[in-house]
Design goal:
This protein has helices at 10-20, 107-114, 151-159, 168-179, 190-203, 207-214, 224-236, 247-253, 257-269, 273-285, 291-302, 323-331, 338-341, 346-353, 360-372, 378-389, 396-410, 414-425, 431-440, 442-446, 458-467, 471-475, 486-494, 504-513, 520-532, 537-547, 556-566, 570-579, 591-603, 607-619, and strands at 130-131, 182-183. It is mainly alpha-helical. Strands 1-2 form a two-stranded antiparallel sheet. It is globular.
Length: 621
């Protein structure tokens, strides 16, 4: 057997050394997050400890435990729906280094043998006692936001978030909570705790946030679960190069074929095209991936330094969507078609809206959903529309929408600006699009002076402002709203104080005008006012009886959120809020849940969030 030392790249060794030689922390049963189409991994051989360095480093690093792999990890959540008839056949090799390679392919074994151990001096290693991106001063929650709750309990809470969240403001609060620099709880590996938080961020559309959180953990502390989530986070941000420092560690920690495919990709990125070709050929011979998934890997290899590969990607016969296809397709300029996006959950539209390498036409298609689920803010929406207005490649329809938005902000008269806003508000009957249009125009609405002449538009303007949290701007219209009107109700729950009179007459008038199914809007209003402490006991009792609303009912969930609020655990309350607001639309939301959510959030110092959730309930019912 001959080795060609001249092909060994110090650049490649340096890129992969970070992950290759580090021991990783084990977990009992890591959940598989492989994209659909990648088969179940074969049983893994018994792991061996990472080799010790030949010379003792100074200072001596803390030792890490040996990786523990389950023989058959369970299937985890996937981006798309059915995967019963995959259009690719994929299986992992028994061992990456046992492949029948030519001389160039054997360079992989030599690289492994010669790769140096990687150590961080004790003073430069990041602590695992607190991990997160946001501090309390930068918008996060307090480090002790979960109090003394155990890690298994908190992990179970996160795993109970298994569906979409109806409330945009609840999603925003959940993002802040999961991103916060929090005390690592007991009874769970801190890296696994980060992995669960990052995975949930991905499933609410926050790909950038998930990646940022993963990067707060040193590679030497990665567990199999965190390796898997790290790959998914980088695929969701269409950043295959970002995975490269973790590839060799991922290969050791997991049997997933995706790690095997990333070895040639990362070799290509470091300029080692000979090695990349050999590894890619071996993956093809072993049928690690076939079909479009293999072609996407080959195309990504061609995107590396002096890749010189022309690979044609055709989506015509592809029936299923997965993270691999989104991440590599977007990164190489062959984005999946809209029909495949339609299979994915709403969260993928959040990924799509923030991917800078995609066309503005594509990002604009995702913008409405992304804003409605909390991924895009008013400012981000306006920036995207403004860039579209100046983009010569944007479609005529999108340019027309951007032009209308410009009129909403710059027209010379208040009535002209409101007319432009109404054109945007009414462009679709879809619930998400209708709500996102209000978010889009929030600051334009805030520029309209409160006036009796514009009283008829007050409800819509207030709704637009509150959709983006501009509560103090909305309060300026308090003197212009009629008692019992929609605008009155929004200010009753959304204003940062008692801006309007909240009395029997107002509640009675609002109920008389309520045309929602089962008077759900009236129930939401009463529940929110009770939770915020803004309605007296006599009126609460009378209207509860009239609406057949029992706010004294208790469940396991109500007991949990009430107990967390009494202990002052803002983080736990935020998690339980999201759990209590799962569903496809607001008709599935319980007024009882809204009562406990607004009351509990207020108790832990999050009244502003409680008010915005309450206002959202009224405007989206």
């Amino acid at each position: 057997m001959r080795f060609r030392l001249k092909h060994i790249s110090l650049a490649t060794a340096g890129i992969a050394a970070l992950a290759l030689s580090l021991p990783v922390l084990g977990q009992s049963s890591p959940e598989s997050l492989l994209p659909p189409g990648f088969g179940d991994p074969a049983p893994a051989p018994a792991p061996t400890p990472a080799p010790a360095p030949t010379t003792a480093p100074s200072p001596t690093p803390a030792p890490g435990p040996v990786t523990s792999r389950p023989s058959s990890p369970p299937s985890g959540p996937t981006v798309s729906g059915s995967n019963s008839v995959p259009d690719v056949a994929i299986r992992p090799p028994s061992s990456v280094l046992d492949l029948d390679l030519d001389d160039d392919g054997n360079l992989s074994a030599l690289d492994d043998a010669l790769r140096p151990q990687y150590y961080l001096a004790a003073g430069t290693r990041r602590s695992m006692t607190q991990i997160g991106v946001l501090t309390e001063s930068s918008g996060g929650i307090a480090a002790d936001g979960f109090g003394e709750e155990g890690g298994q309990y908190l992990t179970n809470l996160i795993k109970n978030l298994n569906g979409p969240i109806v409330s945009r403001w609840s999603s925003i609060l959940l993002r802040r909570t999961l991103l916060s620099k929090l005390d690592s709880p007991e009874n769970v590996n801190p890296a696994d705790w980060v992995a669960e938080r990052a995975w949930r961020l991905l499933l609410i559309g926050e790909a950038d946030a998930a990646r940022a959180l993963v990067l707060k953990v040193d590679a030497g502390n990665f567990t199999p679960r965190l390796y898997t989530v790290a790959m998914q986070a980088h695929l969701a941000t269409a950043d295959p190069a970002g995975i490269c420092p973790y590839v060799e560690g991922g290969v050791r920690a997991s049997e997933a074929p995706t790690w095997t495919l990333f070895r040639p990709i990362c070799a290509s990125f470091s300029g080692e095209q000979t090695r990349a070709t050999s590894l890619l050929r071996a993956a093809r011979q072993q049928k690690v991936a076939t079909g479009i998934d293999y072609l996407l890997a080959e195309k990504t290899v061609g995107a590396g330094f002096e890749g010189r590969r022309a690979v044609s990607i055709k989506w015509d016969e592809i029936q299923y969507f997965n993270n691999w296809r989104f991440g590599l397709g977007s990164a190489t300029g062959v984005e999946p078609p809209d029909r495949l996006y339609e299979q994915a959950g709403r969260h993928v539209q959040g990924w799509r809206s923030r991917a800078p390498m995609l066309s503005r036409n594509s990002r604009m298609k995702a913008a409405d959903t992304a804003a409605a689920i909390g991924v895009l803010s008013n400012k981000a929406m306006v920036d995207l529309y403004s860039a579209t207005y100046d983009d010569p490649e944007a479609s005529d329809d999108l340019k027309a929408q951007a032009s209308t938005l410009r009129q909403a902000y710059t027209n010379g008269t208040a009535t002209g600006r409101i007319d432009a806003m109404r054109a945007l508000w009414g462009r679709s009957d879809g619930a998400l699009t209708s709500y996102s249009a209000k978010i889009l125009t929030a600051r334009a609405a805030a520029k309209i002076p409160a006036s009796a002449d514009l009283k008829d538009s007050s409800g819509d303007l207030i709704a637009s402002m509150l959709s983006a949290g501009l509560d103090r701007n909305a309060v300026r219209w308090a003197d212009q709203v009629d008692l019992g009107s929609d605008g009155w109700a929004l200010l009753a729950v959304g204003a940062p104080g008692e801006a309007v009179a909240i009395n029997y007459s107002g509640l009675d008038q609002f109920g008389d005008d309520d045309d929602s199914t089962d008077r759900l809007k009236s129930k939401f209003l009463l529940a929110a006012l009770a939770g915020l402490g803004r309605v007296d006991g006599e009126a609460l009792q009378e209207f509860s009886s009239d609406l057949e609303l029992d706010l004294d009912k208790t469940t396991k969930w109500t007991g949990a959120i009430r107990s967390a609020a009494q202990r002052g655990q803002g983080g736990t309350v935020a998690l339980l809020t999201a759990i209590g607001m799962q569903g496809r639309d607001w008709n599935a939301m319980s007024p009882l849940h809204l009562f406990y959510i607004t009351r509990s959030l207020s108790q832990v110092g999050m009244e502003a969030e409680a008010r915005m959730i309450a206002a959202e309930a009224l405007m989206r019912t």
